[in-house]
Amino acid sequence: MDRIDELVAKIRDRVSKEPMTPAQRAAKVFTWDTTLDHAFGGFAFWDPRSVGITDISTKEFYTDPVKMCYCQIYAAERFEHDFPAVFADMYNIDVEACGTPLEYPEDSIPVIKEHPIKQKSDLAKLRIPDPYKDGRMPYLLELTNLFSQKVGDLFGCSVATNMPFSGVVGLRGYQNVIMDMRKDPLFVHEMLEYMLEVQIVFNKAIIDAGGAPVPCDAWAAPPNITPAQWEEFALPYATRLMEALKAHNGQKSNWFLGWGYSIVPDTERFLRMFNASGSGICFLFEEDIVGRAGYSTIDLEKFYEICRQQKVVLSTSLMPQTIFEGPVERIEKLVTDWHKVCGKGGGHCYYTTVPLGSPPEHVEAYVRALKNCLYPVE
Fold first, then answer.
1. Does the pLDDT at position 245 exceed 90?
2. Residue 111, SS3?
C-alpha cells in the first residue's frame, strides 16, 4: 500500500501540470467534444512482467487485489497512458463463482479445468453466486473499490466483466454450445437466462463498488459464431444486460465485442445492430481495419461515421501482435492515420493489449503517438 501511495503521488503531480486529467479527456470523448489536448487511449495487460514487474507472481496478479491494483498504478506511472484498465481474467471470474473449477498454472492466466454443465440436468444444480462471498468475485470488488479510491478521480475505473454468451461458453464449453445451438436451442436460451441473472447481480455490485463495468463477449465475435447465431443467442442478452445496468446507475455501459465486422456479409447492418444494443462504445481492432490475420478490410471512414450518427464512441485498437512485434514506426503510423480519419468529429479513442515480452519502447511509442495526435485535427 505504501508503494501504491508513492506512485499515486507521482501521478497526481504529473497530471496537475497537464491541461486536463485523463478522466476529463474521457468525458470529452464520450460527449463528442473536440477540445481535447491530445488523443485518449490506453492498454490492458495480463501478466505483471508485461510492464516490467518481476516481484509479483502471475497468480498473485489474479488473486491479490492490492498487488493487482499496484500493477495497474505502476504501469500508469511508468508509461503515462490515460486508461489503466482494471481487467483481470473476465471470462473466468463469474463462471468460477458459479462452480467452474479453475487451474492456476505457473506464469499463466487462470484456465478452466472442466465445464460444470456436462448434461442438461446440471444447469438446475447451479445457483446465482453472491458477489460478496463466492469465488474471486470479492477479489474483483475489492480491487475495484481500491482502484477507485486511489485514482478513480483521475482515470475513472473501467472493470472488465463477462457477457451472458461468453459466460455460457465457460459453463458448457465452446464445442458443446455450438452443437447445442443447432440441436437444442431452447437449452442454450435457458443457460443464457441463468448467466444473464448472474451478470446483472455481479455487474451491479461492480457499479456499487465504484466501477464502470465493461462486459466482454469475445466468444460471440465472428467467426466464432455466425451473424444469425449472434442475433439470436448473443445480442438480445447483451442488450438486456445493458438495459439493467443503465437502470441501476443511469449511465450507458460499454460492451466489448472487438472484431469480425469485416467478415460478416453485411457489415453496416451488423454494426448498426451492435450500436443499438445500448453500448456506449464500439471496439474495432486492427485486423478489421487493415485486413490482418485472415480478416478483410473495412472502410474506416464509413464505419466511424455510422458510429458517430448513432452516438457510439469508436475505439480503434491495435492488435497485441503489433505492440509485440513493432516496429516503432508502424505503431506510430497506425495511431496517427486513424486519428486523421476518426478524430475530426470527436467520439474516438484507442485501446490495445500489451503481451508478455513486448519491448517497452513499443509501449512508449504507442503512448507517445497518442500524445502527438492533437486537436483540432487538421
1. yes
2. strand
